[in-house]
Design a protein that fits this description.
By secondary structure, this protein is α+β, with helices and mostly antiparallel strands. Helices cover about 25% and strands about 20% of the residues. It contains 6 helices and 6 strands. The strands form 2 sheets. It has a 4-stranded mixed β-sheet. A hairpin with a 4-residue loop joins strand 3 and strand 4. It is elongated and about 70 Å long. It binds zinc ion.
């Protein structure tokens, strides 16, 4: 697309679109489903999404001017997985960004509750958030050997559970047009 930008306005790169499923819930929370403006506009032109809300920011092509979408919704529902991906962020979120041995929020690392040398796996059910001092103190020992029992034994969370946790730890940047969609569930639940 031959697109011109007014230099005094925010760069289109800083105008991502929040992507909602066809039921108007975010396609994903962690990470938050955001598309850059090019991907969002392409989906609009392909008629795959509806524009729910727009930035006060236009881009111009030779033939047309269009406001950059800030919230878009898929026209076709995408079935959501019940369980979230096993990622560092999701694991910390499950453990509320706290060491599961002492509760400290500082210097967090990952601990194999059952050490790898004992056959412990790198999985939802064997990794816990641990601060560096606790991780060091526990070393290659089992919880029984080290007398260090996690407050919550690691488990695989559902997306719903992570979503509930995530409300305590909102992302750093939220465009105002996203808020209705991000906290909609929360309002229904309370
Ligand atoms: Zn600790």
């Amino acid at each position: 697309m031959g697109v011109n930008f007014a230099p005094h306005l925010p760069k289109p790169e800083s105008c991502p679109a929040l992507v909602l499923n066809a039921d108007y819930r975010p396609l994903s929370y962690f990470p938050l489903s955001l598309w850059n403006w090019q991907t969002a506009l392409k989906a609009v032109f392909l008629d795959r999404v509806s524009i729910i809300s727009e930035y006060d920011r236009q881009v111009h092509s030779p033939s047309t001017a269009i406001n950059l979408p800030s919230v878009i919704a898929l026209k076709k529902f995408v079935r959501q997985p019940r369980y979230p991906a096993f990622t560092r962020f999701n694991l910390f979120l499950r453990d509320e960004f706290c060491c599961q041995y002492c509760g400290s929020p500082h210097d967090l690392t990952f601990d194999h509750v059952i050490p790898r040398a004992y056959g412990g796996r790198t999985s939802w059910t064997n990794i816990t958030a641990a601060c560096a001092p606790c991780n060091l103190r526990k070393g290659g020992r089992t919880p029984e050997e080290a007398q260090m029992i996690p407050m919550r034994w690691p488990h695989r969370p559902t997306n719903q559970e992570l979503h509930t946790r995530g409300r305590q730890f909102p992302p750093n940047y939220l465009h105002e047009s996203w808020r209705d969609f991000l906290y909609w569930d929360a309002e229904l639940e309370s």
